[in-house]
């Protein structure tokens, strides 16, 4: 992808732990059909741990060498991603929006989480019981191409991300980008940047992307090369829930 290869650094981080993450953890292994989340997906806030993770992410950003520091910061418009970005940037002197010359945090809806449609908020048990035909379609088509009613497939994410990264070529040629986003977006960015197959990316997706983890690529002069994936080493003191 030309728009991705035009960057010097591409850094992606997942938002800190949210109250939605905690809700899904609470019903794991139970017979619950719903996670019990009252907010719409875009309005789910960070948990206390998530805010601590975002602050720790900010300290990691503050310690980056000058030639690795972000020149552009873009977040999903969802509350948990915007708050993660704001908390992290406030911990840096070079990027804090309130400081002279600080970075301007942009939001872009193409970085939002995957739309679940009618399945939003349901557990796997809930999908099987309430939408058995959809569960059968998912089994038949596979996760990559299955699109729930009113929602998106993983392939749909690739479409909007191709558009997003092409625009980065015009907006930030040679730039160092930090995107604060969601686990599915990080996985599908690997699919695009690393020219992976459906089988490759669905195998990668089996490993949860941890909250506030860091995934990085660096230009070798002609294309981006992977530096790290799902790195949580900076989170040792606050934990990195992975749901």
Q: Brief overview, please?
A:
One of its GO terms (molecular function) is phosphatase activity. This protein has 9 helices and 6 strands.
Describe the structure.
There is one protein chain. With 243 residues, this protein is an alpha/beta fold. The chain has one domain (9-231): 3-Layer(aba) Sandwich (Rossmann fold). Helices cover 38% and strands 14% of the residues. It is built from nine helices and six strands; from the N terminus they run αβααβαβαααβααββ. The chain has helices at 2-5, 19-27, 48-62, 79-89, 124-130, 132-141, 154-171, 183-193, 198-204, and strands at residues 9-14, 72-75, 105-107, 176-181, 214-219, 224-231. A six-stranded mixed sheet has the order 3-2-4-1-5-6. β5 and β6 form a beta hairpin. α3 (48-62) crosses α4 and α7 (154-171) packs across α8 (183-193).
How is the topology of this model organized?
Elements: H1 2-5, E1 9-14, H2 19-27, H3 48-62, E2 72-75, H4 79-89, E3 105-107, H5 124-130, H6 132-141, H7 154-171, E4 176-181, H8 183-193, H9 198-204, E5 214-219, E6 224-231
């Amino acid at each position: 992808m030309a728009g991705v290869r035009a960057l010097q650094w591409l850094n992606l981080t997942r938002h800190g732990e949210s109250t939605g993450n905690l809700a899904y953890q609470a019903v794991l292994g139970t017979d619950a059909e719903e996670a019990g989340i009252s907010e719409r997906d875009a309005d789910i806030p960070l948990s206390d741990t998530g805010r601590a993770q975002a602050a720790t992410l900010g300290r990691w950003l503050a310690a980056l060498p000058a030639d690795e520091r972000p020149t552009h910061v873009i977040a999903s418009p969802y509350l948990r991603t915007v708050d993660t970005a704001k908390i992290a940037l406030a911990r840096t002197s070079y990027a804090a929006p309130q400081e002279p010359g600080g970075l301007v945090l942009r939001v872009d809806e193409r970085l939002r989480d995957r739309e679940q449609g009618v399945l939003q908020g349901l557990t796997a048990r809930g999908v099987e019981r309430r939408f058995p035909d959809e569960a059968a379609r998912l089994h038949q088509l596979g996760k990559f191409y299955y699109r729930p009613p009113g929602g998106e497939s993983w392939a749909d994410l690739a479409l909007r991300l191709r558009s997003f990264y092409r625009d980065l070529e015009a907006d930030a040629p040679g730039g160092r980008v930090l995107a604060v986003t969601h686990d599915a977006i990080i996985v599908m960015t690997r699919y695009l940047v690393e020219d992976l197959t459906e089988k490759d990316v669905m195998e990668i997706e089996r490993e949860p992307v941890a909250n506030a983890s860091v995934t990085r690529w660096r230009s070798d002069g002609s294309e981006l090369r992977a530096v790290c994936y799902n790195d949580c080493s900076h989170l040792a003191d606050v934990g990195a829930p992975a749901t």
